[in-house]
Each structure stands twice: as C-alpha cells, then as structure tokens.
Amino acid sequence: MIENDHRDRERLTIRNALAALSGDEQPFKKMFGHGTLEVEIYKPDRIDHQTPHTRDEVYVIASGSGTFVNGDSWHSFEVGEVLFVPAGVEHRFVDFTDDFATWVFFYGPEGGEPNQGLR
User: Would you say the pTM of this structure is higher than 0.70?
Assistant: First the structure.
C-alpha cells in the first residue's frame, strides 16, 4: 500500500501539482522536463504578472475560468481548454476565478518555432 502511495505522488495530476506548488512563493512550478519540453503548473493569486516568454507555450486549463489576453485578442476560457501563445507575445489571464490553475507546456527553440500557417 505504501508503495502505491509513493507512485501516486509522482503522477502528473492536478492534485499532485497543486500540492507541490503549495507553500512556494512563486505561482508556478516545473513538474516535468524532457528535451525542449517543460511542463509547469501555474496558479496566480488574483493578478497574473506574466511577461512574454522566449519559447512557444501551450496552456491546458485545469480548473477555473476567466478571460485570456493573447496579444490583441481577448476571450473567455474554461476547464479543459487549450490555449497557444507564440514566443514573445504579450499575454495574461484576467478576471479569473479563485480556483484557476493551468498546465503550461513550454517547448521548442528560443524565439519559437516557424509559423506553418495552421491553426
């Protein structure tokens, strides 16, 4: 039984990620990495203070809802939604619920990958 409990703590679940994040001063924590891929959990407290990142990123909303600002575009988001931000683009979450948390996937080279024209 103890062995299974240990393996459960190593799983990349929202529960485990939020537990790992609790008590940290930063609103994010790296949970996994492989090659250029980095997986983080992100849970800002009332205000999202992000600045543009140097690599492309994908968000997968784990809990909560609100509005996502991506460059000049503003739109609502909900649990399960996937959001993409190219490297260097200003973005942030606003008017989000207290339970808001998201997975963040950084990948690719500094400066981002070339745009292939697909959405």
Answer: yes
- 62 alpha-carbon distance from chain centroid: 9
Amino acid at 21: L
Domains in the chain: ranges and CATH: 2-107 (2.60.120.10)
- Asked whether the predicted pLDDT for residue 24 surpasses 90, the reply is no
Q: Which two tokens stand for residue 46?
A: 């009332």
Residues sharing a CB contact under 8 Å with residue 43, sequence separation 6 or more, in sequence order: 18, 21, 27, 28, 100, 101, 102
Q: What is the mean pLDDT of residues 11-38?
A: 94
Residue % of the chain over a pLDDT of 70: 90
What are the DSSP E strand ranges found in 53-107?
A: 56-63, 66-70, 73-77, 82-85, 91-94, 101-107
What does the block give as tokens for 104? 């963040």
CA separation for the pair 85, 62 (Å, rounded): 17
Is residue 91 a contact partner of residue 68, using CB atoms and an 8 Å limit? yes
